[in-house]
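Input/output pair, single chain:
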Amino acid sequence: MKREHLNSLAFLSVSCGILWVGIADTRGSENDWPQWRGPLGTGAAPDADPPVEWSEAKHIRWKAALPGKGHSTPIIWGDRIYLTTAIPVGEALPPKHSTAPGTHDGVPVTQRHEFIVLAVNRRDGKIRWQKTVHKKLPHEGGHYTGSLASNSAVTDGEHVFAFFGSHGLYCLDMDGELKWQQQFGEMQTKHGHGESASPVLHGEMVFINWDHDGPCFVAAFDNRTGQQRWKVDRDEETSWSSPIMVENDGQPMLIVAGTNRVRAYEPATGRVIWECGGLSSNIVATPVAGDGMVFAGSSYEKRAMLAIRLDRAKGDITGTDRIAWTRSRGTPYVPSPLLYGDSLYFLTHYQGVLSRVEAVTGVDKPGPIRLGSMGNIYASPVAGGGRVYVTDLEGKTIVISHEDQPKVLAVNELDDGFAASAAIVGRELFLRGKKQLYCIAEKAGK
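Output:
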């Protein structure tokens, strides 16, 4: 039976003790993770209770090899997991390197690729269906730590929307039938480092962010037909940050972080409601929102974090009293912040130092937390069951308690590496590695 699509954006999350206002209308149930950063768009699963400890020999319900390469987060709805991937096909060609200024650490393109959306059975990890939506020789291969399928999908329980940037936006039904597609040309990303911004849903529309070293825009499309509803140009440069949906006092907002401005758009028209400067260039982290505030961070040539009050935010709010607090140290670069209860968690750059601050005030609680042997961290932290989970590129996940004086509860290691952010549903935690997709759970059944 198809779930009823929930349209309400604001609800009281009792277990987190906070009134949430930053939610896209894709929330299904406590057993769903329907979009990048989860049901609330914050990295938290308030009703979940995932395992604390695991290893290759403990609490692995199943692990399954996936075709190709992708760093998109597993999206879960009901008994299915939806992912994107890119598979090299055909004969090897002479290496094609990115021509972007300042290119470094890039992957040369040597083959055509199939761009694929697939559905996996949540119970056993078997592929239910696999749909090739596009086939092309990519114009650039991206950073060596990235992939050609790093944009996470989003679902409303009726359709799956997959965005591959330069390789198109696609709508499929839940059984893999392609309903519509849109093509936008080729992105020219800074340093040739690739693409990763995920789409977001609201009402009858799906939204994308197209920031690169060329003409930038944000656009809305009818989620049934693919018809463009509106498109607004942006004065920006390359970013990898995904748009988020927020509602405050009955007013929905589409918020997109950028180098020049964080902007809030009216979802129905694309009109700018407010904007705020202050971040660095190379915006990677996606903002989070809750309790009438938005939190956006960056860390490239400078470190910056903004806490923005949504109430009475209009026009250019840079330097006004709509800025609750700012921060210029320990801010995130690649991993996005986590908003859990009344606390905001964020990593320093992409290293093993985690800050926990009071979201409303920005006051440290308790201050930077060194994560021991953790290596480089590209996956964004997630939370559930009163715990915070941080996973690194080398296969380790540290689990810490969610309290004013956090304690390390476990350091778990798998024979894989993880750039994709985890997904949490019920008593299960899903990790997409370089080699395997893991379902981690203590007991059989969902």
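The chain has a mean pLDDT of 92. Residues 239 and 283 are 5 Å apart (CA to CA).
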